[in-house]
Amino acid sequence: MRINWDYIKLAFLLVAVIALYGFADQRNERRTVQGVTVKFVGENNLYLTEDAVNKLLIQKYGALENRPKEQLVLNNIEEVILSNDMVKNAQVYLTVNGELVSKIVQRKPIGRIEGTSKFYLDDEGKRMPLSRYHSARVPIITGKITGKTLEDAYVILDYINNDDFLRKNVIGIHIEDESKYQLRFRMENFVVNLGGVDNLNKKFKNFMAFYAKAAKDNSLEDYATVSLEFNNQVVCTKI
Question: How many CB atoms lie within 10 A of CB 192?
Fold first, then answer.
């Protein structure tokens, strides 16, 4: 009977590959975490620090460095990080060198509520607590704070943040009542009575036309109030 050495060689090769794979897999399971790194994606303003994230993980898991990799459940670590009120999104992974990396996207405040309760309004219209690490330079919201007025304030802030001039110059929104919103500007003394959040594009278009003409006439300081509440017109009250 003739022996087919090609089949024997192939069988030995297959056994060797399986053995090497099993050895590598076993060795990989015995590896430990060589370091822990926290990376913040996006803004440089940190409402949450690397130390704060590490403390959060230590409180839940203890020290992660030198811990066997097979003991880690990355999805659970992500959920712990996401439990922090400053975090919008988190991705946790292990590098080939055994480094545990947490990539974090922070929530972004666009307005600060100053009332009985103090908190931020973020870019999704949700409440966000103040941070002890950083104070955001965003418009201050005062007055009658309710669920409805906060929804409207978010609509106004969202519009403002999409306009370069308004984003740089509007420093405050005062809520007199529902559909009665006032804007305060950085360099001007007058108050803008916006009314409700209907027809914002038309209202601000009219305001920009008024502002450009008044700035050209050097008359901006002559006005106490500028009202955008009426259809297709700007009504001003002089000092």
Answer: 25
The two structure tokens encoding residue 60: 């839940």
Strand order in the sheet with 87-94: 35-41, 99-106, 87-94
- Give the 3-state secondary structure of residue 172: strand
Does pTM surpass 0.85?
no
Phi then psi for 69, rounded to 5 degrees?
A: -60, -35
Q: Name the DSSP class of 26.
A: H
Tokens of 239: 């000092």
The first and second tokens of residue 25, run together, are: 């897999």
Residue 118 Cα distances to 107, 139, 155, 179, 182, angstroms: 17, 13, 19, 22, 19
| Rounded-to-5 percentages of helix, strand, coil across the chain | 40, 30, 35
Only one residue has tokens 């278009």, namely 205
CA 83-89-93 angle, 5° bins: 95
pLDDT 10s digit of each residue in the chain, 239 long?
A: 455 555 555 555 665 555 445 444 555 555 787 888 999 998 778 899 999 999 999 888 888 887 888 888 889 999 999 999 999 999 999 888 888 899 999 999 999 999 889 999 999 999 999 999 999 999 999 999 999 999 999 999 999 999 999 999 999 999 999 999 999 998 888 899 999 999 999 999 999 999 999 999 888 888 899 999 987 788 888 88
